[in-house]
Amino acid sequence: MDYDQVELDAAYDQSAYAPLSGQLEARMAANSKLVRERLGQPLRVAYGPTQIEKLDIYRAHQPGAPIFVYLHGGRWLHGNAADYAFKAELFVAHGATYIAPDFISVDKANGDLGVLADQVRRAVAWVWKNAATFGGDASRLYVGGHSSGGHLSGVVHVTDWASYGLPANAIKGGMCASGMYELTPVRLSSRGKYIAFTDAMVEELSAQRHIDRIHAPLIVSYGTNETPEFQRQNREFAAAVKAAGKPVQLIEATGYNHFEMEESYGNPYGPNGRAALALMGLT
User: The pTM is what?
Assistant: First the structure.
């Protein structure tokens, strides 16, 4: 793309384009605490054997509710489910159950993104198989994410679910917000210093290379104040999904930076919150 190394590194560093990112992240964490006070502490359950493999379930008020599983971002390095509770209020208020899984950080996985991918896939499989235990409707399961969580959402949507004991159409819709779907340029950026990229990893975990595996309609979104590479990645992924004849909607949110796109998931009038409700038929 005619970048030099400094430009490429900046194009995969959102803080270079959003100088108030720290304040936005602190606000989301503070709002998450307030939401937990209003909704109550989530049901915390294990989806796997390791300590990190747990998920937070904010149950809808009525049984048989649709389910939205949210995969958090943080450069694959940071973040936890508790700090993304601020979105739960929107979903619960509109009749859906909101679930946020925790998963390992890539540095603790020896740089292997495949460990994270397997964990979020197993988390989604656990939700589908156990939906009735928390009042959810497995036939209305949706999965979304943002940033590195948007990447993981893309990975979830190109999963061969037979190996996890699920039908191919287990997920009914998804959101890939401000994510990365082709890992070659990411590998060339400074993120390659803490991710142990291999050719096999790039091949398997680049969702754009496996569009034939997508079985659910997708919403892909980005903000016009995000880095040029994040804008390009989302435009090109949506275009490739559309070219393959799969249902997809691309949302270009004017005036939003990367972290504001994250925050908009909790706003019914924001680009991601509005889109999530529409995807689930909850408008």
Answer: 0.96
